[in-house]
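lol ok so funny story. i was supposed to be doing the assay writeup but got distracted and ended up predicting the structure for this chain instead. priorities right. anyway since i did it might as well share w the group, maybe its usefull for someone
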Amino acid sequence: MSLRLASLHIHPIKSLGGFSVQEARITDRGFAHDRRWMLVMGHGTFITQREVPAMACLHCSPLSNGFRVTDIRDGATLDLPWSTDEGEERRAQIWGDTVQVLPASAELSSWFAHRLGIPCRLVFMPDGSHRPVDPTYAIGINSLSDGFPYLIISTASLDELNARIVANGGAAVPMDRFRPNMVIDGGSPFQEDGWKEITIGDTRFALVKPCERCAITTTDQRTGERGKEPLRTLANFRRRQKNTGAVIDFAMNAVALSGDVVRVGDLVTVPMDRGVAT
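and the output, tada:
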């Protein structure tokens, strides 16, 4: 069965709602405009839906020269540019990494603080800020994604997960709970686990590490409300042990090896010696 690129997703601000595109440009640290902005506390530590579920209610949509953030609870909006080169560089903390960022204006930051009910600041990662990925798994740099520039999921995997959830009396969960960059159609459930390298159109990706899932997957991406699924069901068949304890895997982290653009509908191929062949 042939594999195709089913959808592409960009999240301009880390942990806020993103949007779908028909094509995406490859850059040195992920798709263009993906996760270059984020919200931080006063001392510079990053904030996500893990700590503030209401961030799920702030959704981004593209404009001709930037993007709009809409609070879907009441329709309030804020327009932002794709990038900025203004402001004095400062440091921000994301997991174990310290990155150089540019702060947005106090006016822009106050909009988010008001909407989320917490003191926070909006910051941007400029091109000169380089954040290496974990060298244990790959060589390259990242944007403000958790660990790697790309996240790949197959629809077959989500279909299998949802079949198990429904069989146990739960409600199916949508793909946006997992916040992927690329969704692949066709093939078998969890086929991506065994892929080492794939080509999408003319672009090559290395799949370098399973994605360990957290409470964000249990957060409704329209209301911010939390439930037990899909982690409850995933724990029954996707749990593994590591030296820091048990983790639950779903989807694969990836880095780009070559290429410029990927497009919805592109053929996905897997080399015979680097995974299950298509």
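The longest helix spans residues 155-167. Helices lie at 106-116, 155-167, 231-237.
back to the writeup now i swear
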